[in-house]
Amino acid sequence: MSYKLNNIKSSPFKGFDTLTVTSSFGARSFYNSKTKKQQTDFHSGIDLIGGAIIVTPAKGKVISSQTNVKGYSQTFSRGNYVIIDHSNNIQTAYYHIKYDTLKVKVGDKVEEGTEIGITGATGNATGVHLHYGVRVNGSWVNPIDYLLGVKTLTEASKYEEIIYTIKQGDTLSGIAIKFNTTVNELVKLNDIKNPNLIITGNTLKIKSKIKPNEIIHKTYTVKNGDNLSLIARKYNTTWQKIYSLNKDIIGQNPNLIKPGQILKIE
């Protein structure tokens, strides 16, 4: 469902602080009027209308682009596009740009307000709009906070690269939770072929928001029939300690834990 986005602080359109969002970030299902089929996919950005001249909201460098798509194309689904790196593990993407209007090329340095091109309908686009995406540390995120100025494209990266030694019982998902990252990021950073097979004693590179001198907790996923006392015995600790670490997850009653909850273990 379309909606108006007001008070935009960091706009990808020249001269507009109110735009219409026609498709939101994340999983979506929609009717493709070109193929006459219902289409389901993960939308890596948001679709915007309301402006014509596309500009970069912050300084950076063009690292990827395409300029030769003249109209609708499923093969080149992005259409004519530009991706800009902002030198702090943040990149922005601009898809479906009108043919023969791009004003920047790979290697160009851009400033806030630099004109990129004109909004169009090239690639997998059924109408004129701009697909605007924000990628942080390799993963697409919802651009809304960046448009509204809650987060900025030029903020310094808060991630530190650390080395972690895999311990017995570790899984990639558990490690990702410990270090506030994602399985996909771990796989990409460490060139892991099989994410379900990691070897005790091997090391992983991790870009983490957690500093190396912070306490790193084990984690446990609650199963049917579990209670805090049973879990405590497994880890040679007390249910009181587990509860104190996870009170914000469990709530006021330590006897009410739910399957699927991920608990920190000291």
Question: How do the SSEs run, as a string of H and E?
Answer: EEEEEEEEEEEEEHEHHEEHHE
* Residues in helix, %: 10-25%
Given the C-alpha coordinates, what overall shape results?
elongated
Strand content: 25-35%
The SS-based structural class is: alpha+beta
Give me the count of strands: 17
Write a structural description.
- The protein contains five helices and 17 strands.
- The strands form five sheets. Strands 1, 2, 5, 7, 8, 9, 10, 12 and 13 form a nine-stranded antiparallel β-sheet that branches.
- The chain is elongated.
- Helix 4 (228-234) crosses helix 5 (239-250).
- The two termini are 45 Å apart.
- The chain is α+β, with helices and mostly antiparallel strands and 266 residues long.
- The longest helix has 12 residues, at 239-250.
- Helices cover 14% and strands 32% of the residues.
Give me a quick take on this structure.
This protein is an alpha+beta fold. It has 5 helices and 17 strands. The radius of gyration is 23 Å and the shape is elongated.
Give a quick set of tags describing it.
single chain, 266 residues, alpha+beta, nine-stranded antiparallel sheet, 17 strands, elongated
